[in-house]
Fold:
Amino acid sequence: MPEMPEVETVRRGLIEQVLNKRITHVEIRYQNLITGDVDEFIETVTGAVISNIGRRAKFLLIELDNGYTIISHLRMEGKYRVSADQNAIDKHSHAIFTLDDGQMLIYNDVRKFGRMQLWPTDKLSENKSLKKLGPEPLAADFTFENIKPRIMRHRKDIKTVLLDQSVMGGLGNIYVDEVLWQAKIHPETKADHLTDEEIKDIIKCSNSEIDMAIKSGGSTIRTYLDANGHKGNMQDRLKVYGKEGEPCPRCGTEIVKIKVGGRGTHFCPKCQVAK
Structure:
């Protein structure tokens, strides 16, 4: 599933390719992709210029010059591609935005879990999905003062809490495992049992992990590709995720995999001791 670094990489790639281009035609091949009225979506988007492309946590924000923004969530396997070649369109191409330079912005999604929603740009803060998001790594409000109370109000294990997008925005299964390994915190540690120093370590490690992941173009674990059709390189730098049975890079102990909150979870039993 694309997490914050992958969505940020897609955002940067799309800015290079489609910014300031006019959408001349819209084709929605999978109606459930659109949250809301499909015809209204097509009518509003057609003729608009892509004036900016932003991001909030895992949401891509395609801003139009007519006062609306397309809120796009890639979910499990959604991806964008820009091409002038009709052969780039296949059975998994569910939205096709034709641009005024002859290129097409194509949204592909094998699993059909992704969603798009049209929303007034000046009211994005009122959108239900965006409104509930917690501070995200590398942002100005990603501080100890903001994160501590969000973590400490939970009695669940810290792995599950960090996956809660209302606590911290943008991190998914891959990067939560990596952050907890960096911070030397067992994934089943109860959130309200963490010390101030451990919470500070989570914040620090989240920032460093996400920064490195963005610079690496994200992680390609299964099918993720950026807007240029390239794989990310962060998977080559992961320390524990997907490393079951391999030695911990820090102490040499075998990495184990367990289920935490129904999610596959990787950690080092020596570096990350359960409390």
The longest helix spans residues 196-215. The CA atoms of residues 116 and 140 lie 27 Å apart. DSSP finds seven helices and eleven strands in the chain. Residues 144-267 form a domain with the Helicase, Ruva Protein; domain 3 fold (CATH 1.10.8.50).
